[in-house]
Amino acid sequence: MRAPIGSYVRFARVAAIAVLFGLSLISSGTAEEGRKYLLERVDDAAVVQLYVDGFEQLPVPEKILIYHLSQAAIAGRDIFIDQKYRHALEIRDLVENLLVHSQGVDEKTLAEVRRYAKLFWINNGPHHNLTCQKFVLSCSPENFSRAVLAAEAAGAKFAKREGEDTAGLLKRMQPLLFDPSVDAQTTSKAPKDGRDILQASANNFYEGVKLADLEGFRERHPLNSKLVKQSDGTLKELVWRAGFDNVVPPGMYAPQIRGIIKHLEAAIPYSTPKMARALGALIQYYRTGSTADLRAYHVAWVADNDSPVDTINGFVEVYVDARGQKGAFEAVVYFNDPAKMEMIRKIADEAQWFESRMPYDPKYRKPVVKGISAKAIQVVMETGDSGPVTPIGINLPNPDDIREQYGSKSVSLSNVIGSRNKSESRKAQEEFCFDAAEAERDSKWNELVLDLEVNMHEVIGHASGRLAESLKVEPESVIREFYSALEEARADLVALWFIGDPKLVELGLVPAESREEIERACYEAYTRNALTQLRRVRTGNQIEEDHMRNRQMIVRWLMEHTRAIEVRRRDGKAFYCVADVGQWHEGVGKLLAEVQRVKSEGDREGASKLVMQYGTEFDPALRDEVLARFAKLDRPAYTGFVMPKLTPVCDAEGRIKDVQISYPLDLETQMLEWSGRKP
């Protein structure tokens, strides 16, 4: 699971904690060291350059390893684009070709196509990363058609179906590009019109399938397959795999997966022995698609605690699937950041202490916490479900039985957090803090609070707890569409429960004289964020994204069951205020106990009640007020990152002898290069 940027904390997406906890805002993007961070604004998205500190000083073999792992990450990114929406790759081909062959295209139309393309790249498709809602072109279909014809005259080669001409292509694509009601949401877990959640969702995990069709059907590959309803009414699993030695036939995404495997194989000679074993297990899984091979990879990956370079690459998080079963492709490549390691390691070293003091039933606590590895890292590459909108904390692998038997890895993405912070200002805090004292507390403690919350969310949040002995399956298989929001809430609640604990003083993470003030600042920021996050859902009155649901659920539950939070008004504006810190903390303990029970017992009805009653619907009039207040601040709702560029330096025989890192400072240039199109 993970903590996303621009929304909240995901192996355990967070499509972001900084925004998640409502901590800071985009402003000018140039920091004191001369780096340019904020590159541009595209509607409600900020585009920020990700910088990597320390890459140049790495040993050459580690640089070459990172290069090959990064190429593997790029090789798989089209998988996620296709997973999010079955027409997305066709849309990208059309739009990118137009941009590359723009001679003769009207400037106004070209500017609109470029805006749309940038949103597409940031969100890996035409649906918003946080709200799941579709965005469309705002030029006229006629002007777009003229632009396509001009681009074709300038040499553009648009991908067409057999027997299709350009007019037919444009007619077929028009509703996809211009009608927001066609395939309106990539994920819809609570359709208001009563439709089936699979058919109300535009993602590409199912074709012609309803939930009722799955009754009695046993998926052999629940994480890594697409389900298709055939003409005879039976279901077929299209497994995502490369195939293996004429024994296992190739499956869906075989060309892309073979590209990933090629670069993983090239990485192995530069890996440590433990990492080489893990990469070998991952390659075997990619070839066979076998659940047993996936488990073997998870075990090998968790066992590698020592390698200075590491990667996440695979079908991991299930947020995009309305059922919460199908894994989205993501890849992250990183190396250790020793300068930022102290906090996360101290928390990990005391995981058993925290586990033994959880406020839930002791039968749901782990008697012995195993194998928690925690690191601060410098990210070099993120693609798929992890980029350009990136998490800031990750805990993996997701299966609870792996966590209990073998442990897990937690990472805090240091340079992602740093680049984000250096591109922000604090205007929103001033707008949504009730008084100067609250604003001063947030200004003083927001960075420390964020670090503590991310690390505790991942290390002792997702990695905590155990299942009831009576539950013989993974809880997500029975809780289904409510599981991800529930699990994110559980990890949040763990961090919120311990944020004011004297143990953090003992560990040297919090100054003793400020412990209570830090706890209040944390609760205030979390409470405010339930209000400010409404700006992301610009239409309707429902939240679909799981991290947003979990935060809304926690705050609204506290409002109903405690005296911890008050809604106050001043100058015609609403403020969410912490009225009683003790009640806030006590309420967190009670809610965490219930959330853990629901997960441990696989109580779908209990999960549904929490998520639907407290985390899904909101007052649209309140959202409209929040939007109006943010409009005056000119503040983006989320962030997409431009990744570094790695360039191999080769000798006369073509062997890589070094790798140089540079920073494109331009989203369009990077995305067109990744698509194999010259900008």
What does this structure look like?
The chain is an alpha+beta fold and 679 residues long. Among the domains are: 2-53 and 337-638, no CATH class; 86-126 and 136-178, no CATH class. It is 44% helix and 15% strand. A 6-stranded mixed β-sheet has the order 1-11-12-10-9-8. A 3-stranded mixed β-sheet has the order 3-4-16. The chain has a 3-stranded mixed β-sheet with strand order 5-6-7, with no helix packed on it. A hairpin with a 2-residue loop joins strand 14 (565-570) and strand 15. Mean pLDDT is 91; it is low at 5-32.
Uncertain segments are: 5-32
Strand content: 5-15%
User: What proportion of the residues is helical, as a percent range?
Assistant: 40-55%
Whole-number average pLDDT? 91
Shape: globular
Q: How many individual helices?
A: 25
Q: How is the biggest beta sheet arranged? A: 6 strands, mixed
N-to-C CA distance: 35 Å
Q: What structural category arises from helix and sheet content?
A: alpha+beta
Summarize the topology.
Blueprint: E1 2-4, H1 17-20, E2 25-26, E3 38-42, E4 45-49, H2 60-75, H3 77-84, H4 88-100, H5 107-123, H6 141-153, H7 166-178, E5 206-207, E6 225-229, E7 235-239, H8 254-267, H9 273-288, H10 291-303, E8 309-315, E9 329-336, H11 342-349, H12 351-356, E10 372-384, E11 391-396, H13 400-406, E12 408-413, H14 414-421, E13 424-425, H15 427-432, H16 436-462, H17 476-479, H18 483-498, H19 502-506, H20 515-532, H21 546-561, E14 565-570, E15 573-578, H22 581-601, H23 604-614, H24 620-631, E16 638-642, E17 645-650, E18 656-662, H25 667-674
Parallel strand pairs: 4-16, 5-6, 10-12
Antiparallel strand pairs: 1-11, 2-13, 3-4, 6-7, 8-9, 9-10, 11-12, 14-15, 17-18
Helix pairs in contact: 2-8, 4-5, 4-6, 8-9, 9-10, 11-16, 16-18, 16-20, 18-21, 18-22, 20-21, 21-22, 21-23
